Amino acid sequence: MIGGAVFAGAEPLQVSALHPLMADLARQVGGARVEVHDLAGDGGNPHRFEPRPTDMKRMQASAVVLACGKNLEPYLGRLKSGLSGVTVIEVGRTIPSLTVGKDAVCPGCSSHGEHAEHGAGLLDPHWWHGVDNMRRAARVVAKAFAEKDPAGEAYFMEHANAYGRRMDDLKRWAAGELGKIPRAQRILVTAHNAFGYFAREFGFEVIAVAGLNQEQNTTPQEQAKTLEAVKKSGVRAVFPEPSTSGKVLDSLASTLGVRLGTPLIADGNGTGKDAGFEAMIRHNVTSITQALTAP
Ligand SMILES: [Zn+2]
User: Which residues contact 22 (CB under 8 A, 6 or more apart)?
Assistant: First the structure.
């Protein structure tokens, strides 16, 4: 632990998180001064999560609740009015947003607004795929904790800075790995449209089979369009997710004769050795590099 035994005796700050990666971030920044409650749980799907009465109780007993923001949690307004004296932080609020369509992450769409189902014109909530974004987010979290625990300010900032340095190393490693992929192959064909921020940071194009959340189904016309886009791109691999049935990607891969990569973790819901942000990035970068550099 950084700073040694600076925390002695007092109750740890109670923190609840609505997303597994916000829980991870809270632990990284808060160290021994916080107790973190991961409400969506290990492997939980943040698109599908909605607080249950027991979660509301847990949050009411917390000093800080961490949400992702960028409209990931449509219930946030109700949640805030249901809690009193609890600070709800939308960690991603100040992080620059990508807009689907405008920032070229609209899957298989030739014009803006063509696929409302794909979320064209909507904020892409998946900001947690940017390594730089997570570095920023660590400082947001440190400030929020320091407001509730002023004596811990230096401790939290020190942790956030150390985390930032680890993010620099992680980004350097990721860029080095992904740099092995031939330029023409830097295309991510994925199940749901979760990788816009990752693609922006590491110079990839995105073709997603479904929309911004995993529940959005696509029409046969859209699937035909995606197939055409993937074929035209000449990319040699496509990437399922562990949590989706992957039928569309399976058939796409076999129709086009491209390989299926190791499933990517899209929503921070990796478990075991893949839990947490750093492990998610390492897992995804390794999968992408392996599949797109293989002959
Ligand atoms: Zn997602």
Answer: 66, 67, 68, 91
Ligand 1 centroid from CA 166, angstroms = 24
CA–centroid distance, 264 to ligand 1, in Å, is 11
CB count in 10 Å sphere of residue 91: 28
Find the 2 Cα to ligand 1 centroid distance in Å.
Answer: 33
pTM of this structure: 0.89
Q: Kindly give the distance from the C-alpha atom of residue 202 to the centroid of ligand 1, in angstroms, as a whole number.
A: 19
Q: How far is the CA of 207 from the centre of ligand 1 (A)?
A: 14
Going by C-alpha positions, the residue among 260, 263, 262 that lies closest to residue 250 is 260
> In angstroms, rounded to a whole number, what is the distance separating the alpha carbons of residues 26 and 5?
19
pLDDT digits (tens, 9 = 90+) for 138-185: 999 999 999 999 999 999 999 999 999 999 999 999 999 999 999 999
How far is the C-alpha of 103 from the C-alpha of 209, rounded, in Å? Answer: 17
Q: Compute CA 190 distance to the chain's CA centroid, rounded to the nearest angstrom.
A: 14
CA 185 – ligand 1 centroid, Å: 23
- Does 3.90.79.10 match the CATH number of domain 182-293? no
Hey, which CATH number is domain 13-95+126-171, 3.40.50.300, 3.40.50.720, 3.40.50.1980, 3.30.70.260? 3.40.50.1980
Give 48 Cα–ligand 1 centroid separation in angstroms: 10
> Which of 258, 214, 245 is closest to 46 using CA atoms?
214
- Ligand 1 centroid from CA 9, angstroms: 40
